[in-house]
Design a protein that fits this description.
This protein has 50 residues and is an all-alpha fold. Helices cover 74% and strands 0% of the residues. The chain contains two helices and no strands. The N and C termini lie far apart (69 Å).
Amino acid sequence: MNDMTVGLVITLVGMGGTLSTLWFITLMVALLKRVLPYGSESSANGKETP
């Protein structure tokens, strides 16, 4: 393998790893939003504003 091929392989593996990591973080955030839904402070205190 010449230098150009090695560079392209490393670049593609790096980009793929970055994109898959971002996708995994997105899944974790979506899961946490379902498990721990965000509510405003007024609804947490039992006070609702009209």
